[in-house]
Every structure is written in structure tokens, then in C-alpha cells.
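Recap quiz, item 2
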Amino acid sequence: MKLLSDLFNVQEVWAHCDIPCGIYETNTLLVSAQTVIRMVEVMEAIPMDKPSLKDRNNFIRCVKVKEGNAQLCEEQLITLWADFFRPEHLEKFPDLHDKVWKAVKLASDNRQDVSMEKAKELMFACLAVADMFDKVKVEPKDNLAGSVSDNPDAPKKKFLG
Amino acid sequence: MKLFPFSMFVVRGRSMIPDYKPGDYVVTFNWTDVRAGDVVIFKLNGKNHIKRVQKKLKDIVEVAGDNEKESSRVAPVRRADIIGRVVLLY
């Protein structure tokens, strides 16, 4: 196999989901962060002293939703960081890496913990990333609601429909 | 028709896990048509991508990643942009 590698000019190929859509947005990120806050609110209101079966059921459901939305926050942040933000954005936002890293860490913390303070910190961290996004996004050609950026490198023609 | 019948690539990214992991090498056969189920490599915006063919239309092929957690979108690719079909993984 080394012989094959030596004979061929081996190129990189990307197994990544960013190809054809080329559309980025922060609505999902912010709604997920808000959901984490809401779930912590609900969980803190559930009585821990002699909880009923219904209380326990609700608590578990809230844990599941909090976990899922905190994970979604993480995924959205990483997608924006890896696919949307470019080297030229670093010149405009020198602390871009730090802000995204901090937000990703907070998303992970919120999965492990039930803390209104950490949930709010996550929200502020996501807002900071969304703010950078809003300052450099490209207005989409179609009328898409919300904070959406079109990919300036996306194919100019629509292939289907 | 493409000049070389075979090309070799190294995989980056996780959207084709578990079959194709980051660091895997693949060889494509470029002198062939593609069918649904084939894993293909295509060029888009100057970058090579690896995905599985979901549906083949006239001049368009719909592709998607195997790893739904990483890549749940089905998207169109022009037939002319496809470099080849993966025939070897190591």
C-alpha cells in the first residue's frame, strides 16, 4: 500500500456535511441555548424531597432535552467555527477562537451540570459568537427569515427546483 | 473523459463514519458511471468531497453522508463534477 501511495499523488478528500447547503445560521444555536436555560428552570422547580412518579418522569424528560440541546449548541458552534468563519474573520475578531472554545466548553459543562449560572453563561457565549456571525454574514439571495448567511462561494446556479 | 483511470485520496472529516474514517486511504476508478449506493468523490468549490450516492437523475446525482449525526442533508452534485467511484479502501 505504501507503493500505491508513492505512485499516486494522494489528495485530501473531505467527508463533511458543509458541501452543498452552504447556508449558515445562528437561530438554532440561540434557541438551543435558550432551551437549556428553560430546562434548568423547570428542573429547579421540581421538588427533590419525596418527588412523585410524575415529578421523576418530568425530571428525566428535562434532563434529556437539556442534554440534547446542549449537544446541539456544541455541534452548531463547531460547524460555524470549522466551516463558516474564515481566516479573514480572524483579523476582524482576534479572539474568535477563544470565544468559540469557551462557548463549546460551556455547552459541555451544561450537559454535566444543572446550573442556572452556567446556562446563562452559555447563552451569553452563544450570543457573542452570533454577534460575530452577524457582522460578517453574507445576505442570502433568497428572502430567508432570521440571522442567516449565504455562502459566498456557493454555486451560483440552483441545480434542482 | 478523465485522464487517469485511478486516483487516490486520504479521508478527512467524519461524515462517512463508520465505513470511511479520517486517515483512511481510498482509490477511485474514474472511467465508470455511478449508481445509487456507490461512494463517490467529487470536486466542489475547489475541494474534494466523499459521499454516498442516494439517487441518480439525468445530469445530477444526489449524495449524502453515511454518518447522520454529521451529515443529514441530501444534496445535488453535477455528474461532471464527480471524479470517480471508490473501489478500494485501506
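The domain at 6-89 of chain B is CATH 2.10.109.10 (Umud Fragment, subunit A).
Strands of chain B lie at 6-12, 25-29, 39-44, 47-56, 60-64, 75-78, 82-89.
End of item.
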